[in-house]
Write a structure and sequence with these properties.
single chain; mainly alpha; three-stranded parallel β-sheet; three-stranded antiparallel β-sheet; 8% strand; globular
């Protein structure tokens, strides 16, 4: 998010802009993201975006989205303070998933750390009640421990609707309904209609409806109309 890109982004009048920030300091954030200097670029990018909003007279939410893992979960309260100080509108947490060697061997929050994680989550809940701009509801925060215990989703969180509404396109043009399921098509070779209504999509959509995994990826965890309304009110408030 350079000054030039900030000007273009604001001129496009986005609904919101999200920044993935995993720690309130460069050392840990850049280690987790594998790119030296990224924390400074992100910090400057948020500032450029805020400045450009003022110049163009445009307002939209800027959300910081951390992925909680074994190396950074203790720093999440400090990250909330950092987000407020730098000018972000809200912060929206999600726990890491198991899907690579690193997430399995280094980043997964294991049983011996669960008690400490519970205290951090309690602190975040308190901060939220005291006005901190945390997007996650208390209900979602309370599901982080079951997530790391690898429990199934509660009945009230089912069925999963991700397959009914998501259309994720990666940099190669492949389309998925959910990251845990196979590709349903490619935008370079098929139309959106062909992909969305194709046999692959219909089959995987049925599978996602039957999935019992406890999924807390922020873009799918607040999935009821009430959840969406509450998210909208939180953004407007901030």
């Amino acid at each position: 998010m350079t000054k030039e890109n900030a000007a273009k982004t604001v001129a496009a009048r986005p609904f919101n802009v999200n920044f993935s920030v995993d720690a309130p300091n460069a050392e840990l954030h850049d280690y987790l993201r594998g790119q030296p200097g990224l924390f400074e670029k992100l910090s400057n990018g948020i500032k450029y975006l805020r400045e450009e909003c003022g110049k163009q007279g445009v307002q939209f939410p800027i959300t910081v989205k951390p992925t909680i893992n074994a190396l950074n979960f203790r720093l999440m309260p400090k990250l909330v303070e950092w987000a407020q100080k730098i000018g972000a509108t809200t912060i929206n947490f999600q726990p890491i998933n198991r899907w690579t060697q690193e997430t399995n061997e280094e980043l997964w929050i294991e049983k011996e750390q669960h008690e400490e994680l519970a205290k951090v989550l309690e602190r975040l809940s308190e901060m939220r009640k005291n006005g901190a701009p945390i997007m996650n509801s208390d209900e979602v925060l309370q599901l982080f421990l079951p997530h790391f215990r690898e429990e199934k989703a509660p009945a009230e969180n089912l069925p999963c609707r991700v397959g009914l509404r998501n259309y994720w396109i990666d940099t190669c043009g492949d389309v998925k309904l959910c990251n845990d399921y196979p590709v349903i098509g490619n935008v370079k070779h098929q139309s959106a209609r062909e992909i969305w209504y194709g046999e692959k999509a219909q089959d995987i959509r049925r599978q996602t409806l039957d999935c019992g995994q406890l999924c807390l990826i922020t873009c799918v965890s607040q999935k009821t109309l009430k959840d969406k309304v509450m998210m909208g009110l939180k953004l407007l408030k901030n």
